[in-house]
Amino acid sequence: MKTTLLNAWRWSIRRLPEAMLVLLVLALLPGLVLVVLEVRAVAARFISGPSTLWRATVQDPWPAAGFLVCLVGVGLATFLLWRNWPFVWATGRKLIVEALHRKIVLVLLVFFVVMMLLLPFVLKTEGSQMSRVQLVLLYSLVLAMVLLSLVAIFLSAASICSEIESKQVHITDTKPMRRWQFLLGKWFGTVVLCSSVMFVMTAAVGGVVLYLARPPKVAHLQPREAAAILDNHRRLWEQVLVARREFLPVLPPDLDAKVAREIEEQQETGTWPKEPMMRRRRTRDLRKALIAERWTVPLGRARGWEFRGLRPDQEGNLQVRFKAFSTRPNAALRGRWLVLQRKQVKDEDGKMVSRPVVVHAVLAPPEGWFSQVRRSIDVPGQFVGDDGTLLLSYENLSVIGDAVFDPDNLVEVLQSQGPFLPNYYRALLVLFCYVGLLSALGLMAGSLFSFPVASLTVVFIVIVGLVGPWFVSFLSPNYEVPLPLWRDMLKSAWRAFCHAVLTVMPHFGKYNPLGQLSDGMMVTWRLVLTSGAVMLFVKGGLALLVGAYFYSRRELARVIVR
Questions:
Q1: Max CA-CA distance within the chain?
Q2: 199-247: per-residue pLDDT in tens?
Q3: Whether residues 380 and 265 fall in one domain
Q4: Where are the alpha helices (H) located in 270-357, listed in sequence order?
Q5: CATH number where 370 lies
Q6: How many whole angstroms separate alpha carbon 286 and alpha carbon 278?
Q7: Which of 200, 268, 282, 496 is the most exposed place for a label (fewest CB within 10 A)?
Q8: C-alpha to C-alpha distance for 192 and 187, rounded to whole angstroms
Q9: Same domain, 458 and 366
Q10: Of 92, 74, 116, 115, nearest to 195 (Cα)?
Q11: Is residue 363 within a helix (H) or strand (E), and if so which, with residue range?
Q12: Structural element, H or E, at residue 324
């Protein structure tokens, strides 16, 4: 019996690399279908209005550029794999079999399953179904990505270092296979192993989330408790398990002109900074100040916002998120939100004119809205106009202070753009780019250093990539403090050097979809395409090229003549 089980285990290990490869191909096929559908939708928009699509592309060229880079990258990767498949798959398959013999995947899956079962009971939530599902979704995916990141880093680095240190590399890295083919096979094997395990893990996470989001049983509860639980279940599917897009208000048309006038006045008075970075910061601060002034609501007054581009006549609710504070310290906001629609009404002369009319109102709770806290209210989606416009107004009913809306967090309207599962899959495509980049970084470091140094190098790169956007904020100069010329030049050179280093480093925090996914926000194709272009093909490809160059120059053996 023991021999039979051992033989069955060995047989499964020998066939598992091919099974993982098939699983990865099947997992990526829906992405191809979604991309084709998105391209068809963009083509239809181009046929209906080419000028509109062209203006949108000029304003935001990243989606088009990312699509072209991904298209070229996928074509080049397919060509290289097809032309060098025997060498690539032989090397990658050997790496997968060695990893399976080390039981690393089995231990990883067992640990993940145990943690998945414990998370709903360990995490502290608000006690509602919505908060429980939200936290389980976020922390399960974070746990999966941390484990897979460690496996991708250590496995890719060890696959090179261990064979060189144990003097076994000559067994696989032999002629007629070239060294770049050997490195490409190592990368492909790491990607197949980690990505197939990732899709299995995330499929389990999705199943657990959908199980926790099932309709609650409320037949045995009091009507008030049952209504509260059902309302929370409704908000779960409207605010978490959904793909919402944010719509920002139309800015005042004279905003740019006012900013230009302020800049001219400061230039005339000699207070306008000379350094380009300081100028950009001053311009940004001027815009924020003018926006805050425009949307400050005095006592007993109202201010309006206009949102464009929404889907008209959509069922369900919209969410309006805002962050404001009262000019009276520690005072809560007391007012009401008004939804308006343009309707034909009679004016004083009896003529029919189009005017905004209040059709819905949301009053603040008895305790008011607390200052500097981001709040959300529900608005019926039926009030969106036929042209996709939504009109909102805030009326300040307080008697002690004005209401100032935060210019860093503009009032935004969230509207559903699709179901949860396609949004979930787009987030997985971004995580797939993570796996490819980490595998490339591990191989690059492994071709240069020993295993401990290579692992620490990649971990350092990951940490810098995570804190990079946060560190950039400290590089902004303080234009209020004058500095001597030599110190100003040194600081400028230091900032330029740091910006150059952070530009080369992969920004893992910038392309992180997990926060958007757990908040019910849409993981856009813009994020997917830019992640694939920047992280996988540009920086991942650069890491592989650097690794291939140094590995081809590395002396693996030496002939000794006695």
A1: 113
A2: 988 998 999 899 988 888 887 878 888 888 888 888 889 889 999 999 9
A3: yes
A4: 276-294
A5: 2.60.120
A6: 12
A7: 268
A8: 9
A9: no
A10: 92
A11: strand 352-363
A12: strand 324-326
CA angle 365, 338, 415 (to 5 degrees): 90
Residues 387 and 436 in one domain: no
| Amino acid identity at 373 | V
Q: CA-CA distance, 500 to 492, in Å (whole number)?
A: 12
> For 148-181, what is the HEC assignment?
HHHHHHHHHHHHHHHHHHCCCHHHHCCCCCCHHH
Distances (CA, A) of 283 to 256, 260, 277, 315, 477: 10, 9, 10, 41, 14
Q: Which two tokens stand for residue 555?
A: 């002396």
Q: Is the pTM of this model over 0.85?
A: yes
Strand pairing of 324-326 and 243-247? unpaired
In the block, tokens 């979604």 appear at: 34
| Same-domain status, 329 and 442 | no
C-alpha–C-alpha distance, residues 162 and 11, integer Å: 25
pLDDT band (50, 70, 90) for residue 541? very high
Is there a contact between 458 and 442 (Cβ–Cβ < 8 Å)?
A: yes
Helix 129-165 vs helix 451-472: crossing angle, to nearest 10: 140
SS3 content of the chain, % helix, strand, coil (to 5): 65, 15, 25
- The whole domain housing 223 covers 85-242+428-465+525-551
β pairing state of 403-405 and 412-418: unpaired
Domain boundary among 83, 99, 122: 83
User: How far is CA 540 from each of CA 31, 299, 436, 547, rounded to the nearest angstrom?
Assistant: 20, 56, 7, 11
Strand partners, 378: 319
